[in-house]
């Protein structure tokens, strides 16, 4: 069964709003349009802050549809440690089920968690360095392939990165 | 919105014409007629009213696109009194005599703009909004005869005058009625409701004739009976508002009726049309000249549906309007679907497109009125999609500018519509996930099962800023396509260019794009909710700003672009979105180049170098930079200071100290490493010097100059020895500058080159050592560039914290040592600890009640004179019974003695103080905290260091803390043993009056206690006993009889006791315990022992006094006991008395006692007395005594004859009961209880009642020969 959502990119942004990793899939990667999703991830931080400010007591991670821009629908998820996960879905004229997006988000979150838990990230760190932030930033670095691989696997397993359908015309 | 005729977009409302309110023409000469002398005056009094009415009426409703409120308001148009309506039907020209009269706007009318196949023109709507009203309100003046003021109250009413007045009024009213009737005729033609408002003075309202006059006028003019005639007199503004309001209320229904009748008419026509198909449609002849063809049936459907929709909108029936608009729209789509019906790029086609777009907007708007956001958006999207498809058929697909122009317009119109709405009643939905949705406040229809699981993002209504943004993006594409078309034209390709190409050339695409981006930018800015700082929520804004800047760049407005870039880059840098920064920087650099701003170019090139480690053109960048420096000159001679935030990506800079803690005056070694990553090279950049600032910016820096001759220039890892550079730590003015010491090094950083500067720093006062700033200076031709790098910001950059600093240990071969621990970027300088030897000694354990000496010996081994003070804290005891004290000189405390001065100690001096600890209570450990503070009071050699007040350097204080645990034990341990003797004296009789005396001592029950105390010396050091005394104390129940110390002088007990020595005392106490009292009786006295510790040197210590209380007394009680009193010795053949006392101590029971003496031949006695018998009954607390005479017949220890005392109480059979059968054996247990027989010579019991000697064990008597 073809997936209902077509995943263009996923972005991980640290608690201090620094980019961890922006990963594009399918055609978007082939067309080398990474930068576009950098912009999308960066601008969506505004909507994150807007939603959090509007509802500070919210404990739910999933923030739902943040906005649509051009041909992309952007969804947001914020972890307990304020790491933000941003999904860019290809805009098609169908209802996107929240549960489906939440599942994807959770899978990405798990991948991120296990990547950050890698003790070798701190192999060269000073013994008393306590910055988790730097840790999380490094996860997305070019040196650590597992995280990228895990993300690609998740995206592939959902079937969401098969070439998106041509934009609906009628 | 401006792209479409306003008529097609504006919200329609019933139209009301108001006539007769012409603005007063002030200078115009009023026609003065003798017949109506009152007119000018009346006019005057109504002028303000008319002016106010005009203002009020024109303010009722403004034409606007968004007006969702459904109040009964009219679109009021002020017209001239004799306004004419446009002709309703045109009579057909003479050459078409067979045709029916038609509206001048009908496509069937040859003179119509729509002839022959037009759909709906804006002029049709304008007709209904501006030229034809639904109600017509005519303001007229009611004639008023000038009032007659009687000259005197006695004047009779002037009959003539009255008559004249009536005639005049009648005449005027008839004229008025005629005027109204004429107007009425015109309005009746169009079934327009006519309402007349007569302006009259207040006086007139009270006139009794008014009613009849009004009736007359109405009848004469043929006005309706309902809501068609009003009278208004000059009133206040609020009343005027009320009047306008009620006028509208009253006329709303006729207005609705008016539009309903129109609708009905159109519907009839439509039905006729659908069924009749009366008009034939010849196929157009194939020819190049377009032959006018009549409108096709679809076109008529569009017309009729559209008109019905408009009329419904006039009536305020949004849902009906929506339905008709949709029908019109779908009919229109049918027309577009066929090229023959609506050939593309014709005038009609363009009109139809405009009509379709405007219907789309209307439908969206009507959906939005009802908060059906997704339906609105869905419709709009479908509209766009449909027309995209049509565009392809029309040859205006995605690769034409027309297409994108149209797309952009659609987005823009949507944005504008939303903006209009948000200014009014529209609330944008927040797309929270439905899982968290709290009860929806908005009445929406999105509650079906599908949408509750999620939303269709394409149908999620967003902020208008997003639509402006998209419009701008589309306009960019439009420009792209236009440019492509231009190129095509330039190449002379005879491409089929669209007709709009010439027009398109006039369009300033850039300003269009900027306009829309700016709109989006401003809306995003407004969107920032209050309470959050703009700074935090600027990312959307910055993204749009970036696009604006790009547009400025593309339109060659470089200065504008640079301004934008400056601001945007700040945020991107701060949040380290390097990927986004890269394209920004390159465009920025191009701008800088274009504007000839060389300084900025250099600065940007340097920053780009930093990001160049990711891109692949790092070498190219270096060449470019080199080229720029070579070929240009700076605009000023001042150094160009480039503060790079991302210097970390160009230079890897580390500073660290080998030791993070050093003592004052001790040099601390540091390394400053500046290295270049492998993929960047700055070898062509000639660095002139490196300046190192050690404290703040004002201090003199240490400058390392470049020298081409410096050694190691070819090595990749270099080390520059700086030596001791402490003089640069502070701004010592000329002191540092005066040094002719110039350090030179080869300062060229090729790829992978690392230069380590190594030196030492030392401080004469406590403080912190660090490197504050490094400034790299580049001098190239006339360029002088300074790169300041703040070293304290190093840690904040990126993943820096995950790298371990490396200490360069060897240059050849290069070896590094990772510095893994602690923050080594600073070194703390501490004072040397004072060399103060503290010796606390005591010879434990301490004994209770002793002032235990603890000596504290302090030796100043430092070279400074030290002022020493001293605090002692005694920890609180663990159990409450202990009360401990510390005593130091004249201070004494149970917890803390502070600030005891040891005084100023010269180097080498020592001082001793003794602290006494006095322990009482329980044994155990006592804990003391001793804190010794020493402060150096030696004058330091004057230092160049400016002393900062409050710094730790001023008070060179050391503190030594010691915790002392003193075990505490007993010096003397006392064990006491108490025995109780039964009293032997006869008990007082029941009636003995002495018992009632105050001083009666009733010891006949409890008897005496003998307390034996053994004092054992357990102190390991031995004691010198000064004295041991018994101090008796009076007590009501116990009284000392005697003590073994009574006859000894206290001094005589003085002795040296060694460990294990014992000393025993005995005292006897008589106890008078009242009956029934069970409580312990304290002993009447204590032993007071004065003793001294024997010090190790044999000398006695301080005198200590310990008091030992004797154990409390608890005499046991008896119930029935037999006491046998025997002499200890006897003489052969000399009779002696044996006395047996049977005592019934029970307080309630009577005793029945039998005594049996069982002589035995082996007894050495001859016994005279009772052999066996019963003692008279013993009442409670009485006793009976039996005596026997014994005559010893043998010498030696003679046994006493056996005596058996039996309590027979149990054996007595109460009267009425059968005696047991068989009767018990006399003397057996069954006969009764054997009473305890006590030999009083051995009597003694412990507190628990335990006998010293077994019951019944009677001792023997020593019989001596005579």
TrEMBL record, chain A:
GO BP terms: endoplasmic reticulum to Golgi vesicle-mediated transport
SUPFAM superfamilies (alphabetical): SNARE-like
Domain of life: Eukaryota
UniProt-listed InterPro entries: Longin-like_dom_sf, Sedlin, TRAPPC2L
Pfam families: Sedlin_N (PF04628)
The protein's name in its UniProt record: Trafficking protein particle complex subunit 2-like protein
Protein family per UniProt: Belongs to the TRAPP small subunits family. Sedlin subfamily.
Single GO cellular component term: cytoplasm
Residue ranges of coiled coil: none
UniProtKB/TrEMBL annotation, chain B:
Residue ranges, compositional bias (Basic and acidic residues): 158-174
Residues of the Trafficking protein particle complex subunit domain: 348-610
Basic residues compositional bias, start-end: 263-275
Low complexity bias (residue ranges): 101-112
Region (Disordered): 24-44, 87-112, 150-184, 263-292, 934-953, 1212-1234
Domain named Gryzun putative trafficking through Golgi: residues: 655-892
Source organism, top-level taxon: Eukaryota
Biased composition annotated in UniProt, kind: Pro residues: 24-34, 282-292, 1216-1226
PANTHER family: FOIE GRAS (PTHR14374), TRAFFICKING PROTEIN PARTICLE COMPLEX SUBUNIT 11 (PTHR14374:SF0)
Protein name as catalogued: Gryzun, putative trafficking through golgi-domain-containing protein
Taxonomic lineage: Eukaryota, Fungi, Dikarya, Basidiomycota, Agaricomycotina
């Amino acid at each position: 069964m073809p997936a209902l959502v077509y995943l263009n990119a996923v972005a991980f942004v640290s608690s201090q709003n620094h980019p961890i990793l922006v990963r594009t899939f399918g055609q978007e990667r082939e067309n080398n349009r990474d930068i576009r999703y950098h912009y999308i991830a960066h601008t969506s931080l505004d909507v994150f802050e807007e939603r959090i400010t509007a509802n500070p007591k919210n404990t739910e991670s999933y923030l739902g549809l943040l906005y649509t821009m051009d041909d992309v629908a952007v969804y947001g998820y914020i972890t307990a440690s304020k790491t933000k996960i941003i999904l860019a879905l290809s805009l098609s004229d169908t209802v996107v089920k929240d549960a489906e997006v939440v599942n994807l988000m959770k899978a990405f979150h798990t991948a991120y968690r296990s990547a950050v838990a890698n003790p070798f990230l701190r192999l060269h760190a000073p013994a008393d360095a306590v910055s988790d932030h730097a840790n999380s930033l490094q996860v997305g670095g070019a040196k650590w392939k597992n995280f990228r691989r895990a993300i690609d696997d998740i995206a592939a397993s959902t079937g969401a990165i098969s070439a998106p359908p041509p934009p609906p015309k009628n | 919105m401006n792209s479409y005729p306003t008529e097609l977009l504006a919200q329609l409302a019933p139209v009301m014409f108001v006539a007769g309110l012409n603005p007063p023409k002030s200078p115009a000469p009023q026609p003065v007629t003798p017949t109506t002398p009152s007119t000018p005056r009346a006019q005057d009094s109504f002028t303000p009213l008319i002016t106010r009415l005009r203002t009020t009426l024109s303010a009722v409703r403004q034409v606007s696109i968004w007006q969702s409120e459904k109040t009964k308001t009219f679109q009021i148009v002020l017209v001239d009194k004799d306004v004419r309506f446009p002709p309703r039907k045109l009579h057909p020209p003479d050459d078409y005599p067979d045709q029916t009269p038609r509206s001048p706007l009908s496509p069937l009318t040859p003179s119509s703009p729509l002839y022959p196949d037009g759909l709906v023109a804006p002029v049709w709507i304008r007709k209904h909004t501006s030229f034809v009203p639904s109600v017509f309100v005519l303001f007229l003046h009611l004639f008023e005869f000038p009032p007659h003021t009687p000259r005197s109250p006695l004047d009779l009413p002037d009959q003539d005058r009255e008559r004249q007045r009536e005639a005049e009024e009648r005449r005027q009213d008839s004229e008025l009625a005629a005027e109204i009737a004429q107007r009425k005729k015109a309005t009746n033609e169009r079934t327009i409701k006519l309402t007349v408002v007569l302006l009259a003075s207040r006086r007139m309202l009270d006139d009794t004739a008014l009613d009849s006059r009004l009736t007359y006028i109405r009848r004469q003019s043929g006005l309706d009976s309902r809501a068609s005639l009003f009278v208004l007199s000059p009133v206040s503004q609020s009343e005027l508002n009320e009047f306008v309001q009620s006028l509208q209320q009253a006329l709303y229904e006729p207005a609705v009726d008016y539009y309903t009748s129109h609708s009905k008419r159109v519907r009839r026509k439509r039905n006729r049309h659908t069924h009749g198909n009366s008009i034939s449609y010849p196929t157009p002849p194939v020819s190049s000249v377009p032959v006018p063809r009549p409108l096709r049936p679809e076109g008529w459907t569009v017309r009729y549906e559209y008109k019905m929709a408009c009329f419904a909108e006039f009536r305020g029936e949004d849902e009906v309007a929506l339905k008709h608009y949709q029908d019109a729209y779908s009919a229109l789509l049918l027309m577009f679907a066929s090229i023959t019906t609506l050939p593309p790029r014709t005038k009609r086609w363009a009109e139809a497109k405009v009509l379709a777009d405007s219907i789309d907007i209307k439908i969206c708007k009507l959906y939005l009125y009802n908060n059906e956001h997704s339906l609105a958006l869905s419709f709009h999207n479908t509209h766009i999609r449909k027309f995209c498809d049509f565009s392809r058929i029309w040859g205006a697909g995605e690769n034409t500018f027309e297409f994108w122009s149209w797309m952009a317009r659609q987005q823009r119109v949507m944005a504008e519509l939303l903006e209009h709405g948000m200014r009014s009643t529209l609330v944008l939905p927040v797309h929270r996930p439905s899982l968290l949705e709290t009860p929806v406040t908005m009445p929406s229809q999105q509650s079906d099962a599908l949408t509750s699981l999620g939303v269709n993002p394409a149908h999620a209504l967003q902020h208008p800023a997003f639509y402006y943004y998209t419009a701008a993006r589309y306009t960019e594409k439009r420009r792209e396509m236009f440019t492509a078309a231009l190129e095509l034209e330039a190449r002379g390709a005879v491409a089929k260019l669209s007709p709009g190409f010439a027009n398109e050339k006039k369009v300033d695409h850039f300003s269009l794009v900027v306009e829309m981006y700016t709109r989006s930018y401003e809306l995003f800015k407004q969107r920032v909710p209050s309470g959050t700082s703009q700074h935090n929520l600027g990312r959307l804004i910055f993204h749009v700003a970036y696009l604006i800047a790009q547009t400025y760049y593309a339109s060659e407005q470089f200065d504008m672009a640079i301004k934008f870039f400056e601001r945007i880059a700040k945020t991107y840098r701060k949040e380290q979105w390097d990927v986004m920064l890269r394209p920004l920087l390159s465009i920025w650099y191009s701008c800088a180049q274009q504007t000839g701003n060389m300084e900025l170019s250099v600065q940007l090139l340097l920053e780009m170098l930093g990001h160049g480690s990711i891109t692949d053109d790092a070498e190219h960048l270096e060449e470019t930079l080199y080229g720029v420096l070579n070929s240009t000159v700076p605009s000023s001679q001042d150094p160009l200071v480039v503060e790079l935030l991302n210097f970390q990506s160009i230079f890897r800079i580390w500073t660290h100290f080998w030791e993070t803690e050093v003592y004052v005056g001790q040099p601390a070694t540091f390394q400053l490493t500046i290295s270049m990553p492998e993929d960047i090279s700055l070898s062509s950049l000639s660095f002139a010097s490196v300046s190192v600032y050690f404290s703040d910016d004002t201090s003199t820096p240490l400058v390392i100059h470049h020298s081409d001759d410096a050694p190691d220039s070819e090595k990749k890892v270099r080390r520059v020895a700086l030596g001791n550079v402490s003089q640069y730590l502070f701004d010592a003015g000329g002191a540092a500058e005066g040094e002719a010491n110039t350090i030179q090094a080869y300062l060229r950083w090729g790829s992978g080159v690392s230069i380590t500067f190594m030196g030492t720093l030392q401080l004469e006062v406590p403080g912190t050592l660090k490197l504050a700033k490094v400034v790299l200076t580049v001098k190239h031709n006339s360029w002088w560039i300074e790169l300041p790098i703040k070293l304290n910001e190093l840690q904040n950059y990126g993943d820096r914290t995950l790298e371990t600093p490396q200490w360069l240990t060897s240059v050849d071969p290069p070896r590094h040592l990772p510095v893994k621990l602690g923050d080594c970027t600073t070194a703390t300088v501490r004072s040397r600890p004072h060399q103060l030897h503290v010796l606390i000694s005591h010879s434990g354990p301490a004994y209770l009640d002793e002032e235990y000496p603890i000596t504290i010996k302090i030796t100043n081994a430092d070279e400074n004179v030290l002022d020493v003070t001293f605090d002692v804290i005694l920890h609180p005891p663990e159990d409450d019974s202990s009360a401990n004290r510390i005593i130091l000189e004249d201070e004494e405390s149970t917890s803390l003695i502070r600030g005891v001065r040891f005084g100023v100690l010269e180097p080498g001096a020592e001082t001793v103080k003794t602290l006494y600890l006095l322990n009482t209570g329980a044994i155990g450990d006592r804990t003391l905290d001793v804190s010794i503070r020493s402060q150096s009071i030696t004058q330091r050699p004057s230092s160049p260091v400016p002393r900062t007040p409050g710094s730790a350097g001023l008070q060179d204080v050391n503190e030594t803390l010691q915790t002392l645990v003193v075990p505490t034990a007993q010096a003397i341990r006392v064990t006491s043993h108490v025995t109780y003797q039964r009293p032997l004296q006869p008990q007082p009789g029941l009636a003995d009056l002495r018992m009632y005396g105050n001083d009666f001592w009733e010891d006949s029950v409890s008897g005496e206690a003998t307390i034996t105390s053994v004092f054992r010396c357990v102190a390991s050091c031995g004691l010198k006993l000064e004295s041991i005394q018994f101090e008796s104390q009076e007590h009501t129940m116990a009284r000392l009889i005697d003590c073994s110390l009574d006859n000894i002088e206290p001094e005589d007990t003085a002795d040296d006791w060694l460990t294990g020595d014992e000393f025993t005392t005995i005292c006897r106490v008589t106890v008078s315990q009242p009956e029934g009292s069970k409580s312990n009786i304290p002993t009447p006295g204590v032993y007071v022992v004065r003793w001294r510790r024997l010090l190790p040197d044999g000398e006695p210590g301080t005198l200590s006094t310990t008091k030992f209380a004797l154990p409390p007394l608890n005499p046991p009680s008896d119930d029935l006991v037999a006491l046998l009193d025997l002499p200890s010795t006897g003489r052969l053949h000399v009779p002696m008395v044996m006395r047996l006392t049977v005592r019934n101590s029970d307080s309630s029971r009577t005793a029945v006692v039998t005594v049996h003496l069982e002589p035995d031949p082996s007894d050495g006695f001859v016994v005279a007395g009772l052999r066996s018998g019963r003692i008279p009954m013993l009442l409670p607390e009485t006793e009976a005594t039996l005596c026997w005479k014994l005559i010893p017949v043998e010498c030696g220890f003679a046994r006493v004859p056996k005596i058996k005392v039996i309590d027979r109480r149990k054996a007595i059979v109460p009267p009425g009961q059968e005696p047991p059968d068989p009767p018990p054996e006399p003397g057996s247990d069954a006969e009764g209880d054997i009473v305890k027989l006590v030999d009083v010579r051995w009597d003694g019991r412990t507190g628990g009642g335990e006998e010293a000697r077994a019951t019944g064990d009677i001792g023997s008597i020593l019989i001596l020969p005579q």
